[in-house]
Amino acid sequence: MNNGKTDIKSLTLAQLEVAVTKVGEPKFRAGQIYGWLHQKGAQSFSEMQNLPLALRRLLDEGFYINALTVLRKQVSADGTVKYLFRLLDGNTVETVLMRHHHGNSLCVSSQVGCRMGCRFCASTIGGLIRNLAPSEILDQIYFSGRESGLRIDSLVLMGMGEPLDNYDNVMTFLDILSSPEGLNMSHRHVSLSTCGLVDRIDELAAKKLQLTLSISLHASDDKTRSDIMPINNRYNIDTLLSACRRYLKATGRRISFEYSLIDGVNDTDGHAARLAALLRGLNCHVNLIPVNPVQERPYGKSKRVAAFCEKLTNLGINATIRRELGSDISAACGQLRRQTEGGIPQ
């Protein structure tokens, strides 16, 4: 809410139809409004010229249109762009636009901060401030595309926050995102990353969405994973992998396992062998990530990334090394926000 007004961009088409019929307007008006918001990028009701003036005034009285402001922008030598967006309440979130041979990918945030406490992540250092509304996730796409002039071909929910910790808003976001009357982006072009909230993974599996589920695993034994990812104390590796098997059975969609290699912590041949044993028989892919150093954390980038990948491949596991993008522009998620808001030297 904003001064008692409703965030209209966070409403699904069905919800918007209910809202307009309640004020005596025909249902088709909802489709017109929806198109203005999600296809034409209207930032005010006055722009919606095919709506009656009385309706535009009524909308202005009861609703508001969310908008972001670019607070900072960093451009990498490889073309990667990192945005720091200011939200209407003054909070900030990061969004990263990455250029690939196959198209442009956008990494979006789902929360301001994060409460998962992963030890190697900058996003979680200040804890969770609040969840993002569906409109605030959508606007990262709309405003990045508008500012850059580039088409956004795919999305990764892997920015600040844990998407499944903001489950309801993220599900509404996905509904609006794929709506033919809106952006009409197929869920097959969306990857959702989670540190392993098993109850929510099961709820997601029941929806049978055709997105890619990415599991932030980062260790092959419970001791190591609990040391760097507190969520493992709640859902250990066996419990998490059981949920992954249920997800595979329900959706038929291959799972991606994210594995950030940290020097001397999780990068030995022994770790690789245990990881291969854990994942054998699963329809999956392992995405190896050279960890981004964070100023407030003691973890360094592994020197064994290639060797770890070779070991996994030799053991029959489909594994690749993520291409490093934006390493010269505070690449670790959450760093730019902390530099800007916390007075950390840049």
The separation of the N and C termini measures 35 Å
Strand content: 15-25%
Structural class determined from secondary elements: alpha/beta
Mean pLDDT across all amino acids = 92
Write the H/E string, N to C: EHHHEEEEEEEHEHEHEHHEHEHEH
What's the oligomerization state? single chain
Number of helices: 11
Q: Largest sheet at a glance?
A: 10 strands, mixed
Structural shape? elongated
Within the largest sheet, what's the order of strands? 3-4-5-6-9-10-11-12-13-14
Radius of gyration: 21 Å
Describe the structure.
The structure is a single chain. It is built from eleven helices and 14 strands. With 346 residues, the chain is an alpha/beta fold. The two termini are 35 Å apart. The model has no long low-confidence stretch (mean pLDDT 92).
Could you list some keywords that capture this structure?
alpha/beta; 20% strand; 34% helix; 346 residues
Brief digest:
The protein is α/β, with parallel strands linked by helices.
Topology:
Layout: E1 6-7, H1 13-22, H2 28-38, H3 53-62, E2 63-64, E3 69-75, E4 81-86, E5 92-100, E6 103-108, E7 111-113, E8 128-131, H4 134-148, E9 154-157, H5 167-178, E10 190-194, H6 198-207, E11 212-216, H7 222-228, H8 237-251, E12 255-261, H9 269-279, E13 284-290, H10 305-314, E14 319-321, H11 335-342
Parallel strand pairs: 1-2, 6-9, 9-10, 10-11, 11-12, 12-13, 13-14
Antiparallel strand pairs: 3-4, 4-5, 5-6, 7-8
